[in-house]
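Reviewer 2 asked us to include a model.

Predict the structure of this chain.
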Amino acid sequence: MTAFDPRTTALVLIDLQSGILALPTAPKPSSQVLESGKSLASRFRDAGAAVVLVRVAFAPDYADAPPGAVDQPLGGSNGGLPADWARLAEGLEASGDIVITKRQWGAFTGTELDLQLRRRGIRTIVLGGIATNFGVESTARHAWELGYNVVIAEDLCTSLSAELHDVAIRSIFPRIARVLDSDAIAFDC
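Predicted model (structure tokens):
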């Protein structure tokens, strides 16, 4: 067990929303990550620790999306995202949670996440969500650069393929974070 101070630790869950949860994921199904995320969020709330729910959303015309020429633009070939794309998963949000809407992979750029964490005295963030090597990794890198202690809850992460997930878990995260299973997270109360 690794014990954390609930006054200075926050759980940050990335993109556990209808549109993302509907995608095929590996190595874990999104439903498993969601249930594990709900369970850990409940433990954080019970300990009095902050819970942050991050979702990604864009205007229908993508005017607020990151600019630039890319090979796979947002919305794909079908021209748009489903209407409920950005809706947080049923039963995930609780009173007192911080909800952040981002418009890129990482949860810090262009949002008030850093401000909300610092005002609450948060020094450690525990991260999980979908996709491991996109939203979770981008957020972890930026958190590390901002001086936060970063913990990746590996069982709360999955990606679009097992290979993409494994690269982040084995090669990237150990250089900027501690990688734990959520069962190993406890609180100094």
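The chain has a mean pLDDT of 94. The first helix runs from residue 18 to 21. We have added this to the supplementary material.
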